[in-house]
Write a structure and sequence with these properties.
There is one protein chain. By secondary structure, this protein is an alpha/beta fold. It folds into two domains: about 5-30 and about 280-409, Beta Barrel (Lyase, Ornithine Decarboxylase, Chain A, domain 1), CATH 2.40.37; about 35-275, Alanine racemase (TIM Barrel), CATH 3.20.20.10. The protein contains twelve helices and 20 strands. Strands 4, 13, 14, 15, 16, 17, 18, 19 and 20 form a nine-stranded mixed sheet that branches. An eight-stranded parallel barrel has the order 5-6-7-8-9-10-11-12, surrounded by four helices. About 40% of the residues are buried.
């Protein structure tokens, strides 16, 4: 059940009115439900209970210290893609032996950091990277546990900008290239090939692409007699951004993974991000101006694409709802836009939205993942606050950036 709901026409987060929070906090700000995060994590864990996977939260989805600590306390590990995310995860209390380091462009400094911190796995994405890791490990007199990220050339049927498992994408290495490295693994004598990894894309709503990927992995592992400690199946699980979207059947996918695990006999790793945080946050904002155009009415918000990038970056759909319903309709088309000096600084458009006045407050839905983590100082705008609700109380978990400090930097 969603923790964002209307009570007597007022939007509530758990047991607290969003309007109450505005009294002491200037918009725009991110607003999360702690219970929703916890419920999402436990729901994911429950669906895969028979597999007992290591659930490594994809930290790029949300890097807030409080959120990472909360998930760590629930038993989550971390999937990181930079040295910064690695250090932030450890600082938030996530143990290094639950951290997987992915990404195509790890620097020598990042690789050295990962080795020194004794993380669980470094997922390799090219032969050049394998050589560099082996070289650094040799200098440090270490044997390093690694995985190889396979590009299975599977179309996840998602947006082209978040597809990662096709041959045309930059991620992973081809099956042929991996097998060549595996046959010559003696040349990488400081690497322990403990895992294979895949991640075919994001916002996936069907288990069919996952099933194809499992079949490919099964073939690779069994035909080549590869012994593994882990198979990292990545993440990419989609959520319902629109009412007509059908979510992935995790129960059915769990059975497929269980069958795979029996054949391969290894520990499974998942890397969910959006599924855990996506629907656990809204972006609260204020209507600054209402401007009538020739073809539509522009509702100009105080939040911009610097605060929330997904619509500009991916043409992503996010519903927008009022903090207070008035049951009156606006005739014609309205478009919610932000203040940034870019045409792409817009969020969504609607017909027959409720009547809006300047000074009203809105909430952009489902922004818990890839919201704050993609925000920037574009147009020299301070990063906005992040607030979390638990039952009937709230806590500021990141203060709004100070403008004077920003312009001194």
């Amino acid at each position: 059940m969603s923790q964002f709901r209307y009570v007597k026409n007022k939007l509530y987060v758990e047991g607290l009115s969003a309007s109450y929070i505005i009294k002491n906090n200037k918009t725009p700000f991110y607003l999360y439900s702690q219970r929703q995060i916890e419920n999402n994590f436990q729901n994911f864990k429950k669906n895969f209970k028979s597999i007992n996977p290591l659930i490594c939260f994809a930290t790029k989805a949300n890097t807030n210290h409080f959120v990472l600590k909360l998930l760590g306390n629930l038993g989550a590990g971390a999937d990181v893609v930079s040295g910064g995310e690695l250090l932030k995860s450890i600082k938030s209390g996530i143990k290094p032996n639950k951290i997987v380091f992915s990404g195509v462009g790890k620097t020598a400094d990042e690789i050295q950091l990962a080795i020194k911190k004794n993380i669980l796995l470094i997922n390799i994405e090219s032969e050049s990277e394998a050589r560099l890791i082996n070289q650094i490990a040799k200098k440090l007199n270490k044997n390093v546990s690694v995985g190889f990220r396979i590009n299975p050339n599977v179309d996840a049927k998602t947006h082209k900008k978040i597809s990662t498992g096709k041959a045309e994408n930059k991620f992973g290495i081809s099956i042929k290239e991996f097998l060549n490295i595996y046959k010559n693994k003696a040349a990488f004598n400081n690497l322990k090939i403990d895992a294979l990894s895949v991640h075919i894309g994001s916002q996936i709503l069907s288990d069919i692409p996952y099933q194809k990927t499992l079949n490919i992995l099964t073939s690779i592992i069994l035909k080549n007699n590869i012994n593994l400690k882990y198979v990292d199946l990545g993440g990419g699980f989609g959520i319902n951004y629109q009412n007509n979207q059908k979510e992935i059947n995790l129960s059915r996918y769990s059975k497929l993974v269980k069958n795979f695990q029996k054949k391969i006999n290894c520990k499974i790793i998942f890397e969910p991000g959006r599924f855990i945080l996506g629907n656990a946050g809204v972006l609260v904002n204020k209507v600054q101006y209402i401007k009538k155009g020739t073809k539509k009415t522009f509702v100009i918000l105080d939040a911009g694409m610097n605060d929330f990038m997904r619509p500009a970056l991916y043409d992503a759909y996010h519903d927008i709802i009022p903090l207070i319903k008035n049951n009156k309709k606006h005739s014609g088309l309205i478009e919610f836009v932000g203040p940034i000096c870019e045409t792409t600084c817009k969020f969504n458009q609607f017909k027959n939205f409720q009547k809006i006045a300047e000074g009203d407050y809105m909430a952009i839905k489902d922004v818990g993942a890839y919201g704050s983590s993609l925000s920037s100082n574009y147009n020299t705008k301070p990063l906005i606050a992040e607030i979390i609700v638990k039952n009937k109380t709230y806590k500021v978990i990141r203060k709004k950036q100070d403008l004077l400090k920003l312009i001194k930097a």
